[in-house]
Amino acid sequence: MADSVFWFEVGLIAMSVAVGVLGAILGLGGGVLLVPSLTLLFGINIRYAIGASIVSVIATSSGAAASYVKDQLTNLRLATFLNVATVLGALAGALLTSLLDTRWLFVIFGVLLIQSALLMIRQPDPSLQAAQAEEPWTRRLRLAGSYPDRVLGRVVAYAPRRVWLGFALMWVAGVLSALLGIGSGSLNVLAMGSAMRLPIKVSAASSNFMIGVTAAASAGAFFARGDILPELAAPVALGVLAGAWMGTWLMVRMPNQRIRYAFVAVLLVIGVQMGLRGLGIQVR
Known about the structure:
The structure is a single chain. By secondary structure, this protein is mostly helical. It has one domain. The chain has helices spanning 2-26, 31-41, 46-70, 76-96, 102-122, 136-141, 163-180, 185-195, 200-224, 230-251, 256-278; strands spanning 145-149, 154-158. Strand 1 (145-149) and strand 2 form a beta hairpin. Helix 2 runs antiparallel to helix 3. The two termini are 27 Å apart.
């Protein structure tokens, strides 16, 4: 019995480390990967899996955000500005949960994610292009920035495009996050990368900062409901935190295109999962 518990904990921590690495590199927080892993691989009740996921997102953000700020990858002004839209969207989504049938929303969301992933492959890498002139909103809010890219060996300057569209998409991300019970990390990175034309490293780093704030705001409610089990959340959080530190070390040394391809692959998996869930097809 003791041996089985020991190996269960070892497997749990190993899986959490892997999720933390991917979450830090791609800006997803790991929740979208952690919940299916805990429920399908370890047979954990989905309520407690989601509770542990919330704690893990805070751990990922805490482990990655400080390092990314130090590496000058996180655009703090932009992340704070967009977080306002995400929180407002989450509040609106919470009010709509009892009014809408989310089944077809899963299908539509899955199709849109798959389409967005395919379009993202064909988009040129913003880090390889010269920074364009600042748009009025970008200049007014002082959202332009730069970061040192170790792979390219130079400082990459960037100026967010279509700030109004990015803000609107972040509101939609917050609504969908509340309606469908999914993390907004994938939508954050997609909106910043595709709509605002930010380099993938800046998008992922800023997303890591944003999801931690959102998760911290909702963790109290999960704890009050008894959905956070310390004996489960503690080893998961430790594993994810260790993975997040490893992920931040890897991300600054990875080519942008490799991160983009990994993000597209994860988007395709999430899109298929969402579509099947909406159609009532359970993948085991």
